Each structure stands twice: as C-alpha cells, then as structure tokens.
Amino acid sequence: MPRITEQRRQARREQILEAARACLLEYGLEAVSMEMIITRSGLSTGAVYGYFKGKDEIISAVVTDGTAEIGRRLAPVLNNPQPPPLPEFTGQVLSAIASFGPDAPGVDRLLVGIHGWSYAQTDPALRAATRTAYRGLRTLFAETAQRWQAAGTLSTDADPGALAELLTSICLGFVAQRALAGDAGIQAHVAALNTLTGQTEDPAAGSPWEAGTGCPSAEMPA
Questions:
Q1: pLDDT tens digits for range 13-60
Q2: Which residues, other chains included, contact 22 with Cβ-Cβ below 8 Å and sequence gap of 6+?
Q3: What distance in Å separates the CA atoms of residue 116 and residue 126, rounded to the nearest whole number?
Q4: What is the DSSP letter of 31?
Q5: More exposed terminus of the chain, fewer Cβ within 10 Å: N or C?
Q6: Are 154 and 220 in contact (CB under 8 A)?
Q7: pTM for this one?
Q8: Do the Cβ atoms of 174 and 92 come closer than 8 Å?
C-alpha cells in the first residue's frame, strides 16, 4: 500500500479542522463533540484519530493555526519599513485581518476565533501561547510607532507601547464587533481615525499627528 504524501496529510488535517470550524459556528464550543466533527469531515473515525487524540486537541489546533495564519497575513503590513500614517496603516491592518474571515461557504474563521478566545482561557498551554502571540503583535505595533517617530511624523513624546496597546484593542474590537454587532466597517475605522488625528488630504492644512503640532502623547496615544 503506497504511503500517503505529506501534501495529502496536510489536506486531510485541514479537512478535519475545517469540519471543526463549521461545527463550532453551528453548535458552539460546549456542544461540539468529536462525533460531530468526524461526521462533518467525511473521514472515518480511525482517520480522524490518526491526526488528533480528541476534541480538545482539534480545537487547540484550530486556535493555533488561525493565530499563525493571521500573523502571516499581517506580516507585510507590520514589517513595512515606511508605514503610512495611522489611519491608512490601521485600514491595512484591518483589511489583512478581514481577509482571514471568509473561507468555505458558511464558515467565517474570524467568528470561529471568538470561540477560540474563550477556549484559550481554559487551557493553560494554549492561553500561554495565545498571550505570547498577542504580546508579539503589540511589539510589532510599537516598532511601527518608533518608525513614525524616526520619520518625524509622530512626536518623540508619544509612548510606542501605549499606542501599540490601542492598536491591539482596535484589532480585537474589530473582530468582536463583527461577531456581536454583525458587521464592522474598515473604512469607517479609517475615516474616524482621520477625524481624530486631524489627517487631511490637503498637506498644507497640517495635522495634530505631526511632530510638534499637538501630536498624541503618552497620555493620549491616538
């Protein structure tokens, strides 16, 4: 009997995780059972248990894989050596996050992520991994703020760490709002930040975001 290829193994693993995502959205975290996931996957019981020991291991994989994929989508934005102004930058970040949402019909991975947040609080290892990932995100946001300061578009009095926490809250709030309110507009966030930071299409009009013109400080990071 020929051995299964690594590509096929990964495809089957993803098939199981996709079934788990669909079950989470349909039944909720507590009600989902291993039997539900196996049935939805279309694979045999033995095949599924060949990849995962049980429901908890599958849900953990859903969370860790999702976090890693969002990180990959955010990387080009967060590693930009010349990040655009805050409103445009935030729009790029939220667009990258939103692109992770729609997958197979009826499966929005961002909504699945809400269940993942809850599950991560009950599993010490997963909670530690999740905290490490989000603290890493805050570090990248802080480094972006430092690039703004080096470019002279953000006051050196501003606290990069405080701004990083605010940006992280915007990201998490965007996901939560999509789940709780049913939608969340990227352009609405960009427009609001344009208003709050005084960004304008007319460079001559000036902006409180510019260094030395009332740029947000540590007390008001954005």
A1: 999 999 999 999 999 999 999 999 999 999 999 999 999 999 999 999
A2: 40, 104, 106, 107
A3: 10
A4: T
A5: N
A6: no
A7: 0.83
A8: no
φ/ψ of residue 108, rounded to 5: -110, 110
Judge whether 183 and 190 are in contact, CB under 8 Å: no
Using CA of residue 189, residue 191, residue 195, residue 198, what is the dihedral sign? Answer: positive
DSSP per-residue string spanning 100-121: TSB-STT-BHHHHHHHHHHHHT
What are the tokens at 23?
């079950």
CB 78 within 8 A of CB 142: no
Give me the CATH code for the 64-205 domain, please: 1.10.357
Report the pLDDT value the prediction gives residue 82, as an integer from 0 to 100. Answer: 96
Q: From CA 84, how far away is CA 57, in angstroms rounded?
A: 40
